[in-house]
Design a protein that fits this description.
Largest sheet: 2 strands, parallel
Helix content: 40-55%
Radius of gyration: 14 Å
Distance between the termini: 20 Å
Oligomer: single chain
CATH superfamily: 5'-nuclease
CATH class: Alpha Beta
Number of domains: 1
CATH topology: Rossmann fold
Strand order of the largest sheet: 1-2
Length: about 100
């Protein structure tokens, strides 16, 4: 995976949106095994009606693409921050806590 480094969640439960799965599987085919291994250690969250509606509002108000809007809505629904290298888009989402690998958290 691009920019791959060792990921440690520590004692915290780590969630990811099902849209994140789709984005990761859009990458190189030879990385699919590693993606599956990484995701197997995390908790996948599907899209329900509440998340879908919030994603639509985020897309409308923040102007981010639909996948990022769903990821942001999922994080807001769970009350957790988003970990991303794409801080620029997620910073536009009001009330969303955003972390990057460089934050050291």
């Amino acid at each position: 995976m691009r920019g791959e480094s060792e990921f440690r969640s520590g004692p915290n439960r780590v969630y990811y949106s099902i849209l994140t799965r789709a984005e990761l599987f859009a990458g190189r085919p030879d990385e699919e095994k590693g993606v599956r291994e990484l995701l197997a250690t995390l908790t996948e969250v599907g899209v329900n009606q509440r998340i879908a509606e919030e994603a639509g509002r985020i897309r409308r108000t923040a102007g981010v693409d639909l996948a990022d809007a769903v990821i942001a809505a999922t994080a807001l629904h769970l009350g957790v921050p988003v970990l991303t290298r794409n801080r620029r888009d997620f910073d536009r989402v009001r009330g969303l806590k955003v972390r990057t690998p460089r934050d050291g958290r």
